From TrEMBL, chain B:
This is CbaC protein. It comes from Natrinema pallidum DSM 3751. The lineage of its organism: Archaea, Methanobacteriati, Methanobacteriota, Stenosarchaea group, Halobacteria. The chain crosses the membrane at residues 7-29, 35-55. It comes from the Archaea. Keywords: Membrane, Transmembrane, Transmembrane helix.
Amino acid sequence: MEVTRMSSTASRTYLDQFPAEAKVIKAAFWSSFMALAIGGLLGLVQALHRTDVLRFIDPADYYTVLTAHGVLLAITFTIFFLVGIFTWAVTTSLDRGVVDIRFTWAWYIMMVVGTILVGVSILGGVVDAIPTYADVLFTFYAPLQAHPAFYVGLVLFVVGSWLAGADWFRTWWAWRKENPDERIPLPTFMALTTTLFWYLCTLGVALSILVFLLPWSLGIVDSVNPLLTRTLFWYFGHAVVYFWLMPAYMMWYIMLPKLSGGKLFSDPLARVVFVLFLLLSTPVGIHHQYLDPGIAEGYKFIAMTNTMFLLLPSLLTAFTVVASMEHGARQRGGTGYLGWLKALPWRDPVFTGMALAGLMFAAAGFSGMINAGMNINYLVHNSWWVVGHFHLTVGTAVALTFMAAAYWFIPQVTGKALWSRQLALGQVLLWFVGMTFMSNAMHRSGLFGMPRRTAEPQYQGFNFEPAVGTVGEINAQVALGAVLLTVALAMFLLNMVLTSFNDDSDSLPANTYAGTLSGPEDSPAVLDNLKLWTAIAVVLVIVGYTLPLASIVDSGGLFGPDISGFQLAIETDPALVLESVREVMP
Amino acid sequence: MRISKGALLVVIAVLVPFVVEFRTALSWFGIELSVLESLVLGGAVVLAIVLWAVWPPNGNAEAELSGPN
Ligand code: HEM
Ligand SMILES: [Cu+2]
């Protein structure tokens, strides 16, 4: 069957092809899984605390837990997995190793050191022996202030990811010398365009940390402009969601068609999509600040317009990926208007996990459009609706795709067969079901104003009805969803651990990805002109951000009107903790 | 079995959001199902699907396949 490229290396795993790179990728994946394990468990603690099903932490510590959950899952889990996948994608599609494996280990270790600093800083909020604090949530803008170690850790982590990008570029440059007339292979193209907008957007957060937050936390400057740090955060904060999403998109483009038994419908369309993300990911961040006073409506309107354009690449993706799956299903003998769906490999957890993740992403697209609309955003802003929305995007479209991908990748980089396919299939289904319960309840309650980031919202003693049902039902549904998700998480980790100890290394699939029906020869050469697209992206950022930033600095000052910072960590009296424990104990 | 056990499980899992969202959507038309009613409704649909799946394909008991799974 001609579904795959790289026939010369057929039936060889990634480990056989690139043993040295496989080690780094394996390490990156395990770093990611560890973050997922801890972060996920904290998610359960939060969900049970908020819904008053089980409260064993002090309410003030809720924010420490929430910070750890947000940072470990949205930043650590996602980005470690990304660097693993992109390293795989670049080396596999260029069919050559990285230029210098020591450099690869160097950025990985840098990211680990950064993560440890960040993690310990956050943990200091609940462990008296550690003198740090970082209850700043994963958005970490002023006036919330963290210990300097937190910011230093973040910087190390981000710089590590920059070096990872440099590694992929170096590898590509080396390949280009050897293959001067060839098009950039699609997976490498995806990794490089993603890296480019990552550089562009992280500049904002680097600026925010190095010029404002870190000096402020060190006491070098004694005030910052909170609106400026917020705006710089969101300058990065929207693009980062696409940074998480791009490896998932890559999997949908180059793995799903292969798993369905076919080829990617269109290579040119895939390139267009990634170029659009490079152009539009960054100049839209202000759509997270529709409710911020101090930014004129006009700028918000421009951000909204750009955001609506961003729907285009996602709709193109939905079209291309579904068309490729249909092509694959028909190759496998599927027929009929919708009957081809039956011919898809639903028993394969890698396929099913990714397909269901894509389905949830479609649902998230709808709630996303509501968030993006300037006027309806006022209805849902800062409510649990938003939390429901992004547990469908990063919490499922990304996380479930990554877990499903891991069922394919871990055997590839370890040379050991997946321990149990049945358990894996059950796991992806359980995550899907658990998220349905949790996210639906979050959307329903948020629509009627239930706040996010609140340890113990009180809805007793007066008449309050969320959309459909009662608050009690909402709470039960969130708690049920959270428990199912945690069980699914445990199933995933168990399978990964047992796979690592698996003696069985037979019948491993070869390291391949999907071929294309319409290949790179059909796409205009200008699509591969990365310099051009980067230049346009920079121009769009300048257009989108110069005036708003200038007016923020103009009205609030570069270092703000004497904002001296606020540390969420509250001294707690052990007697109070004991009392609250007694309250929940029967 | 008309479909494999794995596929049956997938169908049932995908059904869950439909039932949950159906209940939410119905309320906007003034039809409020209680949790119990939704559970019964969902259970009935699941039962119907399971029956369909395990029923011999052409009503002929001898034609029953052992199933590919
Ligand atoms: C075991 C599965 C999970 C559970 C039970 C869970 C639960 C929760 C809950 C209840 C909240 C809201 C807290 C509040 O608003 O007061 C929350 C927030 C959040 N979750 Fe999750 N979650 C899970 C998985 C994930 C995953 C996989 C990701 C991302 C990859 C994620 C990312 C986030 C983020 C970014 C926040 C916002 C934190 C903030 O407001 O600062 N969660 N989670
Ligand atoms: Cu955004």
